What we know:
Elements: H1 3-8, H2 11-32, H3 56-63, H4 67-80, E1 83-88, E2 91-99, H5 101-125, H6 127-138
Antiparallel strand pairs: 1-2
Amino acid sequence: MTMEARANTNLGRLCLNAFRWMDTLFEARMQLRGWHHIPCSSSLVLPHLHEKGVRPADIAKAAGVTRQAVHHVLRDLLELGFVEMRTDPKDRRSKLVVFSPLGAEFDTAVRDVSKEIEQELARRIGDRAVSSLRTSLEAEWGNPYEKSRTTENKF
């Protein structure tokens, strides 16, 4: 793609293209490690888990989706053996989602492959560019529906 063509491509399309590049490489690398047929929806839940466990309602809030969506994904992950449900020791009426041993193994593979992909991207576009990209993506962008203070948005 020429510089002029890139300048005329909207930022959303560029972000989507970058996501597809990373997602394709991620899936290929995970398959090389023996992880096949992992539902895409698992990314809605798995990144929010930690060793002490997390309530489904808290996953929904962190992911910005409904509780029903989280419960739907949890059913699939329970069936695959990636997660377990445990009683919350602080509130016996509530459940916590935790990684199963298989899920913990998967999580380790995800972290390793993610690091590999970031290193591959740095080799291709440079450490500085990856660092700038990371800084931009980690910035707080704010609520997408909130009016900008500097422009007149019509939502």
